[in-house]
């Protein structure tokens, strides 16, 4: 009996392992440390200057979330650039496995790698501020972080079809990283955004997830409010994953039928 | 001059992979504005409106070095990776011209990033411009662009040696963001870090630019302008000497001809 989903799961696992091994190169890790820690240090300095528990909560969890976001978006883009350069990108496309499965496995591996960088960033903030933020509800915080990981995966993955079309070239994913950070409210409440721009943030699953994380820490809002925000984050995240699937279908049809990619 | 312009154009067109319309818009305009917004809003939320204003100006200046670093360091990387470095080393043109032509067309990008950031901040983030003295600001921006470019050209030699531009660019970006007073005032830096900061590009220029935005005259910022140019000249000399050393090593050993990405 032909069960394609078993094959897809194997392909997902294989692309996860392949990407994980590639990302575990010492130079790769060094590059991320060198580019991430100065930024994290600045956030920690600002948190220390503010002398506010709420700011510290935002910065402490914000650096963790941003590291995962950055890993998911930047490394997907950069891994594609590497594949194009080494000539293995077309092999990924001609395989019978849908491109979306291959890319999702890569994205999962990169998000998992981002968690490690996120923990390093979190510890850096603790070291600089020398202050541990009090948590109102640890179980809700843990669950909120898990929801945030799903939201981050969905949020980062939506950009992957565009990167496939552009073959990861051009470095345009740099803007996606900054976009997600600004509009997800990793470092401040979304209400801080100028009028009109807050609505953009509300379309991101990561903004709802981050709000739930902060509420779990500072105890603002009831448990049901937090659960509601989980639901919204997961709902928007699933919608984004669905949209990613549709976009990949369009991109893949274009690649397989025309043999052309948008970027020359 | 014709050689300089021709090779500057070829370097820019062939080795600057952000030159597609989407890559260019993202890196020259969108990303600097978003980075500036992130720090401005954090300053507004965590501290006070004065901090927000400081961070806006700091990030607008930093955006110049960011795009210069991204553009020029990848030029060095792709020159080696695409196999054209041997052509660069073998030409009998003036070595200074060979070294300097890599940066020429990246300079306007830095100015564009700064102008975009300031315009955005004025329109959306309520940046105060009523007291700004534009003459000194323009002079300091030009000096900051030149000194940042000299610094990045020095780092470019490290890119050739290390065969990895992301690490060098990440190091350079982190150093300039954290150590030049963009966010953390150099007076607040511990130990001798403040003195080290004075020897980096952007630091002295940024001090003068903030003064000029607050109404400082050319006389008020003259020392900052002079220091910024002096720092740039020092990095220019060091970078050129490093380039000659790397080039001699490349010619002698052929070690940069390996086809790695």
Can you give a write-up of this model?
The complex is a heterodimer of chains A (264) and B (261). Chain A is mainly α and 264 residues long. Chain A is 79% helix and 0% strand. Chain A has eleven helices and no strands. In chain A, α1 crosses α5, α2 crosses α5 and α3 packs antiparallel against α5. Chain B is mainly α and 261 residues long. Helix content of chain B is 77%, strand content 0%. The radius of gyration of chain B is 19 Å and the shape is globular. The two termini of chain B are 32 Å apart. The mean pLDDT of chain B is 92. Classes of the chains: A mainly alpha (264), B mainly alpha (261). At the A-B interface, α2, α3 and α8 of A face α2 and α8 of B.
Task: Write a brief caption for the model.
The complex is a heterodimer of chains A (264) and B (261). Chain A is mostly helical and 264 residues long.
Question: Which chain pair has the greatest contact?
Answer: A-B, 45 and 39 residues
Low-confidence stretches of chain B: none
**What gap, in angstroms, lies between the N and C termini of chain A?**
42 Å
Number of β-strand runs of chain B: 0
What are the SSEs and their pairings?
The complex is a heterodimer of chains A (264) and B (261).
Chain A: H1 4-23, H2 26-50, H3 53-86, H4 89-94, H5 99-129, H6 138-157, H7 160-165, H8 173-183, H9 198-202, H10 205-218, H11 223-258
Helix pairs in contact in A: 1-5, 2-3, 2-5, 3-5, 3-6, 3-8, 3-10, 5-6, 6-10, 6-11, 10-11
Chain B: H1 2-15, H2 21-46, H3 49-81, H4 85-90, H5 95-100, H6 107-124, H7 134-162, H8 165-179, H9 193-198, H10 203-213, H11 218-253
Helix pairs in contact in B: 1-3, 2-3, 2-6, 3-6, 3-7, 3-8, 7-8, 7-10, 7-11, 10-11
